Amino acid sequence: MLFSSSPLLIDTLRQRRVKLSYLIDFPAILWSGRANSRNFPANIYPFRASSHFLYFAGFPLENAAIRLYEGRLELFMDNAPKDNALWQGETPQRDQIAELMGADAAYPLTELFNYLEDAATIVVQNPITANEQRQLLNCPLVSAKEPQGIDLELTQAVIHLRLTHDQFAINELRQAAEISVEAHKIGMKATKTAQLEAQVRAAMEGVIMSHNMTCSYNSIVTVHGEVLHNQQYHHPLQPGDLLLADVGAETPMGWAADITRTWPVSGTFSPTQRDIYHLVLKAHDTCIDSIKPGIEYQDIHRMAATVIAEGLVELGILKGTPEDLVEQDAHALFFPHGIGHLLGLDVHDMEDLGDLAGYEPGRVRSQRFGWCFLRLNRPLKPGMLVTIEPGFYQVPAILNNPKNRKKYKTVVNWKRLEQFADVRGIRIEDDVLVTEIEPEILTKNLPTSIAEIEALVQN
Amino acid sequence: MLFSSSPLLIDTLRQRRVKLSYLIDFPAILWSGRANSRNFPANIYPFRASSHFLYFAGFPLENAAIRLYEGRLELFMDNAPKDNALWQGETPQRDQIAELMGADAAYPLTELFNYLEDAATIVVQNPITANEQRQLLNCPLVSAKEPQGIDLELTQAVIHLRLTHDQFAINELRQAAEISVEAHKIGMKATKTAQLEAQVRAAMEGVIMSHNMTCSYNSIVTVHGEVLHNQQYHHPLQPGDLLLADVGAETPMGWAADITRTWPVSGTFSPTQRDIYHLVLKAHDTCIDSIKPGIEYQDIHRMAATVIAEGLVELGILKGTPEDLVEQDAHALFFPHGIGHLLGLDVHDMEDLGDLAGYEPGRVRSQRFGWCFLRLNRPLKPGMLVTIEPGFYQVPAILNNPKNRKKYKTVVNWKRLEQFADVRGIRIEDDVLVTEIEPEILTKNLPTSIAEIEALVQN
Fold it and tell me: GO MF terms on file (chains A, B) (predicted)?
């Protein structure tokens, strides 16, 4: 299954490396990495190949490398030792895999030693393989975030390619989105009888697993949505709670989806929850409607901030004009993160490269409260896949911070805010493909409206 | 939840380190390790602390160390940075955690530098932390399998303690067993409507996840039970197939269960499947009945081999006397692995130490075909938890091996064997606690009989 090929895959991989050859005139060697051990060597975490390797090699081969040069693909990997067949079954041999991926040549891993000259690379996450990369290429590859020389040139070329998705990738991304949509629907339906966050998580990840996919990141399924990356699942579900679920699937070839929905445990939003949900949804819809080639992603972020500020003024939580409030970062009291990020083989696509992929060359992260967590700052292009994920949170660490209390003393109606105590965190997130015409919401089959969500939870 | 304590836990941790202080007269420093990154730094695999750390610290703290000396416990860890509260929520501070674990003192991690003198350690799995251990202690800690000097003394002391389980550990192990039993029952029930292995796996892991536990190892759920560590889940379920499921839970504090059952996809074993199942079950029951203090685990392995050989003679698959066949390793054609292993914080408990824990000092692994995969070779003692997991497999790599075909030409009735083609792999595995009296099967609530298993699958 991991090793099923197709003419489209072989052709796609060829096109990717030919395009790479137009961008760089030196060889690139990409390593897949190794499995990480959990508590003893044989008890490993499920292997995840480096995304850069996957992009050009297609298959998640363990401890392999590929060399790309002038449109050619050479595979370096060792055949499994004979003993392996008892424990792992018969696995495809190097030459078979080379054929499945359309490689021009295939060698044992030790042969790589003879093909290193003038080659650039990107450092992988696995520390042992990263160390091998450094030793073999005999240069101080600090991290994938700070490449130098030809490694930087290679990184920029790979970013250029991976920023927009080809048809094969889009097919995979659609599949990941479809299964993730299904997982969220089942999660909503499972809430009625669930007593713990963990039970809803299990129902959702069960859908992903039953389609033989994995999660593209550690799921967030929590009644404490105000903890942005909450990865605890032990809280009981109470009737007045909102449940925030940020769960996405990854196809066997590594392509990711990323969806968030927030629903009422009881099946019915309270009036205050409805009010806030509506404003987050308005921000979500406004942003998606604005997506088109050429628009700056930071302008979409500002749009979300403005819609949220405007809504909070209408609800009497903030005081002032939306534009002024956004200028003061007052929206960030409740919407501290960015409006989204790139999505592809990584859920934060190419975040291993720091901001090299997310930020247009010459731009750097803002230090400002409302902008410092913006992960993407580029004009959009057809073929880019981005998330749109506005939210509203009451984060104690932000709202109880004495500096914020002082700075935003007159801007926030703290008394009024208290009436919204049953809204700890709401986020609505979809995956949106930029096209020449209308944006395509890959996750559109999952409803966002209050009526439809309540109906699913009440089933 | 991860940080809920109890007087029993605090007292247990104290008893463990006091016992350690009777065995070594130098300080021990144990590191917990770090989370491993998947495809970019923030996308981590769920953190699993080193089991040696967990045994004495109780809680799975990330990037922490403890120093144990003369019955004292000192905790070294840094408080989470302030920014962390936005993403991870408010996490307990070092001093709170120290109190929960009954530590005598707590310091920032950098302070560890002043407490290194004469200290021994055990190398963790995470390569970055392992490197830090080497640098800080300024010695060539190769791997946990080959400790030297005081590291070896510490390792032997820890093995002595961890070989038998205290009441707190047994409570945890019972919980892991109970949830794993439930997972298997649900797996059997889910088979009726499942079309893929992945769907049964999802149902089983869903039970574990819904109880906020994790899997203690990568599940095996396959119609190709002859691949011993099969971790692919894409095969369709066919009516005549047997499904082999080797799935176990791990409690939040890290204690493991390990269960295997094999059931017919259709709900009814075929006559040949019944025959083989019966002989594996007979081996299973005979071994468990023989468990008592003082018995050699290798003798239990030999017992399983003999029962299997005897049964295969009765079925006309092997020819000769059972004892002769075992002497020739003929049983290993169909039962190539060992009868089981230690179970505790690791599913193969302390396998990070190679065979130092599994093998009585002075004993080494046999090279023989029927014995080389035996993971435990010690006399049993009350408080030890072991698995008993006999099996029958038709592994092509073994049965089609020309050497084996030649060596066992007259011993195997190859023609007769062909009639058992619908039995690719059967394993029955339970977790058994050695006590002064009857062995306690922690997993006894999961049936082993054909009638009960068929009833569960047919539900």
Answer: manganese ion binding; metalloaminopeptidase activity
Chain A residues with CB under 8 Å of B212 CB are 196, 198, 233-234
Record: contact A38-B125, CB cut-off 8 A: yes
Q: Does B202 touch chain A (CB under 8 A)?
A: yes
Instruction: Show the low-confidence residues of chain B (pLDDT under 70).
Output: 1-2
- Which among A87, A210, A230 has CB closest to B198? A210
Contact between A75 and B384 (Cβ < 8 Å):
no
Q: B283 — alpha (psi -120 to 50), left (phi > 0) or beta?
A: alpha
* Tokens read off for A295: 């628009």
Q: Is A2 within a domain?
A: no
Last residue of a domain, one of B162, B191, B221: B162
**8 Å CB contact of B85 and A233:** no
Give the pLDDT band of residue A2 (cuts 50, 70, 90).
low
User: Which residue among B224, B232, B348 sits closest to A1, beta carbon to beta carbon?
Assistant: B232
Cα–Cα nearest to A217, from A198, A230, A226, A227:
A230
CATH at residue B240: 3.90.230.10
Residues of B in contact with A37 (CB under 8 A): 125
pLDDT, mean of residues A231-254: 96
Residue A1 in this model has a pLDDT that exceeds 70: no
Residue A1 lies in a domain: no
In this complex, which of A203, A226, A352 lies closest to B206 when CB atoms are compared? A203
pLDDT digits (tens, 9 = 90+) for A183-192: 999 999 999 9
In this prediction, what percent of chain A has a pLDDT beyond 90?
93
Of B86, B202, B209, the CB nearest to A198: B209
Kindly identify which residue of chain B lies nearest to residue A48, measuring between CA atoms. Answer: B38
Kindly state whether residues A145 and A234 are assigned to the same domain. Answer: no
**How do residues B364-390 score in pLDDT, each as one tens digit?**
999 999 899 999 999 999 999 999 999
Task: Look at residues B19, B91, B12, B22 and name the one whose alpha carbon lies nearest to residue B57.
Answer: B12
Q: A1, A39, A123: best mutation site toward chain B, by most B Cβ within 10 Å? A: A39
CA distances from B141 to B145, B163, B436 (A): 10, 23, 39
Kindly report the nearest CA distance between residue B85 and chain A, in angstroms.
Answer: 6
Provide the chain A residues 380-409 that lie in CB contact (below 8 A) with chain B.
Answer: 395-398
* Whether residues B288 and B337 fall in one domain: yes
Number of domains in chain B: 2
Same domain, A155 and A192: no
pLDDT bin (cut points 50, 70, 90) of residue A34 is very high
B2, part of any domain: no
Same domain, A154 and A252: no
Cβ contacts (< 8 Å) between A50 and chain B: which residues? 39
**Of the candidates B42, B45, B211, which has its C-beta nearest A348's C-beta?**
B42
**Cβ contact B202–A203 (<8 Å):** no
Q: What's the per-residue H, E or C state across B258-280?
A: CEEEEEECCCCCCHHHHHHHHHH
Cα distance between residue A208 and residue A216, in whole Å: 10
Q: Could you give the C-alpha distances from A148 to A27, A139, B93, in angstroms and in order?
A: 15, 10, 39
pLDDT score of B84: 80
pLDDT at A229: 87
Residue A27 has pLDDT above 70, yes or no: yes
**Which of B143, B162, B181 finishes a domain?**
B162
Say yes or no: A153 and A173 in one domain. Answer: no
* DSSP secondary structure, B362-429, as one string: T-----STTTTT---BSB--TT-EEEE--EEE--HHHHT-HHHHHHTTTTB-HHHHHTTTT-SEEE-B
What is the span of the domain harbouring residue A73? 7-162
At B2 the pLDDT is 57
Give the confidence band of A360 by pLDDT, cuts at 50, 70, 90. very high
| Tens digit of each residue's pLDDT (9 = 90 or more) over A77-110 | 999 887 788 888 888 899 999 999 999 999 999 9
Residue A433 has pLDDT above 60, yes or no: yes
